Amino acid sequence: MHRRTRYVALTCILVLTLVALYRKYSPIVVDGDPDYFPLTGEIPDSATSTQAALEDPIEPTIEPAVDIPPHRIVFDAEGRANATFIMLARNSDLKGALLSLRQLEDRFNRRFNYPHVFLNEEEFTDDFKRQIRNLTPSQVEFGVIPSEHWYQPEWIDDEKAQEAMKQMARMNVKYGGNLAYHNMCRFNSGFFFKHPLVQKYQWYWRVEPNVKFHCDISQDPFRFMVENNKTYGFTLAVYEIPATIRSLWGHVKDFMAKYPEYIRDEDNALKFISNDRGGTYSRCHFWSNFEIASLDFWRSEAYSTFFDYLDATGGFYYERWGDAPVHSIAAALMLSKSQIHLFEDIGYQHDDWSHCPQTQELWEAGRCMCSRHDSFDYSSDSCRRKWDALGVD
């Protein structure tokens, strides 16, 4: 009996020893370690083999066999991407915020339960928070924008900026004389993705007060973006007001000449933003009040350098550069056109401009409350035809 016990004990010790050796020297990375598995889930094949490791007791360095793709697949237990809705609103926007949130929850988020982030340059009131939370069971966070991210920076020539805004007001340039609007455009161009409440996310869906979602959204746009290697998504494309961006393209050309390493040479969307191979700006841009996009793209070295370069010119205050052309130009120049996606199936309206799915199949599937004939897509003010000409799926 004692002999059998000793045999079992020795066998267990031997098995445990072999397991320990395998774990120590095996090239296979433990499943679930995001630092070593590429998106495809393939096991790196360049690691030192078990036999070689046994011959050389030095701990092997394990590297992925392929480059990490631009978007890492990170889904939670319910299959959601690492994503959030972001709404920039003031306390006075409560009614419009509630209208947008109610439609977004009814048409999409009641099935997916993604979190919401609300940002304001001042504290939200308790009543604002209470009414917003009453409309959704999802997590909701309210944040104050750091003053250095919102207000006109000290290095701006205030006298020059004030005179420029007065001139734009006299010319009836939309929002040209509104300092808060200039602050907002600069914040949305270079700072919203740096907010502490946003830092933990990889993806965002920008939502404005007083927007409408015309159709049911049964598929998860975030998962679509991740799984199809998309970076920037939009619904409407429009022409920018010329008086707001008089010098913008000149500075963009200077940037391209100084930092050619950040410009994608092939298969970009330059033809969408320029009719003459970059000589001039077509004024076409993705209307950024609706965006589903990668936060990592805005945080990248390329975009950060681009924003800092433009910001240093003072154009957000000496002119009225919007975040929409800034985002659009960056996406068109720095991404493959295949990484930019038109969400044809998402019926959407902001102000008087509306996108309605153009095919009967999508219109019926979404139970849409919009008219395809009234859709803005192919009006004279739309850049949709220029996007279609790129032939992007």
From TrEMBL:
Gene3D superfamilies: Spore Coat Polysaccharide Biosynthesis Protein SpsA, Chain A. GO terms for cellular component: Golgi apparatus; membrane. GO terms for biological process: cell wall mannoprotein biosynthetic process; protein N-linked glycosylation. Residues 1-20 form the signal peptide. One of its GO terms (molecular function) is alpha-1,2-mannosyltransferase activity. InterPro entries: Glyco_trans_15 (IPR002685), Nucleotide-diphossugar_trans (IPR029044). Keywords: Signal, Transferase. It comes from the Eukaryota. Belongs to the glycosyltransferase 15 family. This is Glycosyltransferase family 15 protein. The lineage of its organism: Eukaryota, Fungi, Dikarya, Basidiomycota, Agaricomycotina.
